[in-house]
Please model this.
Amino acid sequence: MEHLTHFAREFRKALRSLLPIVVVVVVFQLAVFQEVPDRPLRLAAGLLVVGAGIALFLQGLDLSVFPAGKNLANQFARRGALGLLLPFGFAIGFAAVVAEPALIAVAEQAETVSAGRIDGLTLRLVIAVSVGVVLVLGILRILRGWAVQKLLLPGYAVVLAATYVAPPEIVGLAYDSGGVTTNIVTVPLIAAIGIGLANSIRGRSALTDGFGLVALCVMVPMIGVQLYGIWVYSVGGAAAVGPPGAEDAPVHPVLEHVLGLAQMIRDVLPMVLVVLFFQFAVLRRRLSHPLRVAVGFAMVLGGLYAFVVGLKIGLFPIGTLMAEQLIERGTPALILLFALLIGFATTMAEPALVAIGEQAEAASPGRISGSTIRLVVALGVAVGITLGAARILVGVPLHHVIMAAYAVVVVLVLLAPKHIVALAFDLGGVTTSEVTVPLVTALGIGLASAIEGRDVLTDGFGLIAFASVFPIISVLGYAMILERVPRLQKEPT
Model:
């Protein structure tokens, strides 16, 4: 009964999160386009399935991923087993990313758009290795007590330096790849490991030291992909040509669901195996409450599958339809308004953001409100996607705008309260997963394809990067305002 009540509560919260998307779509369809989408009941059913998937997923996290991750981190820290903790960090980072659905989708699009010059599998391996390596670096940061900005500022200096020498064809893809490495499974697990490790070490703060792993996992793949692009375009690899008749054959609906569930198991299984291997083979300890953990993992799997099915039924068709309708209208103001509203709406529906917001609130009682943080992040994403869409419309080179944005971030990092820096960068990384990526990618590629003089590879990618950097700016700015409000209230008396 308790679990059903918890599920009902999470389901209501998920529906409230999805409501902004519904409002944006309905307003544009009825008031702007004056059309009713085909099969509206099917679209509505898809959104309900998405809500149920989010609720099931979040409940499963509380039963399995969070306690398992924190427990492993605590055990490694108590034993002082640095030689075990670092390989665990690399293994969990690599396993979590290499089969990430959003990354697979972006890699396949990059391979198609580049006519095979960029190899999708190689791109995924480069990013997965980058995340594994940086997770080792992030764990060392927590153990040694290094301030996160001492890694982030030089790291982003390297990112921007690489942007100067990287071929234009790879820059947008590199920044987008950094954004899609963090999803609704990897973010909670990585955050749980960081917070658990910080809580187990004397003198460490869960808020200041526990967050930051996600931020590093976003940054380093940007470097790796740009280096890969420099190698590909300087060596001049030949474009791969698929065999004739290689188009996908139609699949029976039942078989499609079976294959979809099998793929979801494949996505989650590497992380489960890594956790179990280190728990049983390395630490040689049994899981606490194994039945509850198993049920939790099953709920995570079921929630993810329902979430993806709901996306295919509801959000994917809506995103494609809206992009096509806006491009046909050819009205820049409408495109920018849609980008602003859908950026806000999709971010409010992100399960990973909900999870991290709750973790941040728990880690800092009375200092941070999870719901307020979500609003601040959603506003940042909305502004970012709007500016990114405006860049495509105007034709400004991506690296000019994105480097200016990161220059602002560097200044704010130096001025903002130190306890919020790691969380701000983590929040920038959780805004681009399975809800945001499909809609944003469809809009960017659609705009670049429809506007004369734009290149799909050079201009179509990059919106995800804007959706990642501007939430960092909004959270840091919000923290600076909060810090000054009490002083302002005391002065004029």
Remarks:
- The first helix runs from residue 2 to 32.
- The chain is about 80% helix and 0% strand.
- Residues 2-238+255-490 form one domain.
- Residues 58 and 355 are 7 Å apart (CA to CA).
